[in-house]
Amino acid sequence: MARKPLISGNWKMNLNHFEAIQLVQKLTYALTKDDIDAVDVSIHPPFTDLRSVQTVLEADKVPISLGAQNCHWEDKGAFTGEISASMLQKLNVSYVICGHSERRQMFGETNEQVNKKVKTIIKTEMTPIMACGETLEQREAGEMAAHIVAQITEGLAGVKAEHVAAMVIAYEPIWAIGTGVTATAGDAQEVCKLVRDTVADLYNQGTADAVRIQYGGSVKPSSAPELMSQPDIDGALIGGAALSAEDFAGCIQYRLGQ
Ligand code: PGA
Description:
CATH class: Alpha Beta
Distance between the termini: 20 Å
Helix content: 40-55%
Largest sheet: 8 strands, parallel, barrel
Number of helices: 13
Number of strands: 8
Structural class: alpha/beta
Shape: globular
CATH superfamily: Aldolase class I
CATH architecture: Alpha-Beta Barrel
Order of helices and strands: EHHEHEHEHHEHHHEHHEHEH
Strand order of the largest sheet: 1-2-3-4-5-6-7-8
Bound molecules: 2-phosphoglycolic acid
């Protein structure tokens, strides 16, 4: 079944709001109508940039969706330093990444917390991009599949099939993030298929056929065409290359390299 690709730029902790506006403007010039017709695009700036980026996207009617990198599962209260899903929704944020490996590894995020975030993002009428991925040690110890299945199973616990069908799951092998090492297209396809099969086991084939699965980890304009030609890869979650308008547009224009 046809799934429209989603290419997302995860800016991580980079670019202040002035720099963010410049990057969005450059990106707007680099993308054509054909690109946007063929591919959904989201950008995920730091929280402090969201309002500025929203204003530029809306004023110039740029067909790029606004995304966030994280949120808390509570709506409000004494959670110093946290941002709620409803605050993001008020800024017209459409996609929220949750469970990125940097949050899991550096900030101790658990599958249970990721699950609460997924549910809150859905309840707030935004789309979660739930990330999963294994370390090199887990891969070498033959624990990759069990780890991915557990992250998906626990991350989706209690989420209805119709909501899973509309969400996004990003497979990002931790050893390929920011390292310049991209998983081979075959490796990436194998695990993205595992993710889809896991969704089929937990729900049904229709849900598995509908969910969009991104690959992430050192994606560049040169590697995007082959990755995007894999049957179970429906998009990319891009860090480093998303900080350059030229490189991010090059990834979005992967069709030209196929
Ligand atoms: P990278 O980051 O493209 O710089 O490897 C991807 C990510 O962590 O989302």
